[in-house]
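Exercise 7. Predict the structure of Lipopolysaccharide heptosyltransferase 1 from Cupriavidus oxalaticus.
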Amino acid sequence: MKRILIVKLTSLGDMVFTQPLVADLQRAFPGVKIDWIADAYCADVPRWNPNIERVISAPLRGFKKKRSWAGLREIFRALRELRREKYDAVLDVHGVYKSAIVSFLARTRHRYGYPVEELGESGARFAYNHIFAPYIEADSSRQRMRRAVSRAFGFELSDEMDYGLVMPPDTPALADKGPYAMLFHATSSEEKKWPVADWISVGNAIAARGLRVLVPWGNEAERKEAETIAAGVPGAEVMPRLSITGVAQMTGKASLVVGMDTGFVHIADALRRPTVILFTTTSRHLYGVSAPGRAVSLGGHGDIPTRAAVLAAIDEVMGVQPPVASLH
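Solution. The predicted structure, encoded as tokens:
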């Protein structure tokens, strides 16, 4: 096995989940070169992994929004780049039409994909001539991907998930003003949110521990909510709008990251930062993380984390010992 293409186009969190595949494959096939194809908006994630040989990006989401000739030209450029190499195997670990089309267009005799019942779009099945074994119910989402590939190629998985991410060194100046915590309050939908009043309460508790509280945002609605949270926390700052890489660099130097089940919080975990992830409607079993003393996941499937549970989790990941109960 000399060269493998991983097809994972989106989204930010899923791109992070998939990174351990790179280390798995390089352990199994020493010297193998790994290429990756991704949507342009989140292609920075595989670019942070120095063990990936080539990252091919195409503005698929941007083209869907704007339908511009420039975007179409960029997609064709990416396809030409894709076909520049011949692959021993193409692994579609995304499982939708567009990832299947990319897999089908790649130069290879061996295209791997999920069984129909595990595909995001069942029609994607047309692209594959090798099918991964069905997933094991008890596995997390990222472990399912790893196990699918290891079973397909007959190698044993390491217990460690090696994400391999290395941030560019030119971190925004905001990181140099003293230790800080980041509160990732924003989510992709309203039902996934945690109440603003709870964010303010937790922000105050964090500030009382001596950390600056930074509140990031990505659009105008998130900025307004960030301003509301920051206004209720002494010394808190609404972060300037940064690129994906800029926010990830800040995340990589944070003393604490608390946030919803979103991509940047999973980046924090991958970078081994003290991390607390909050789940409301999504599955903690599938997407949660657990690293005793460093990363804690709370809630999920309608179980909304309480302020007290979040504060206890913050103490755990920051190494604060709970008070000893009195014997009297």
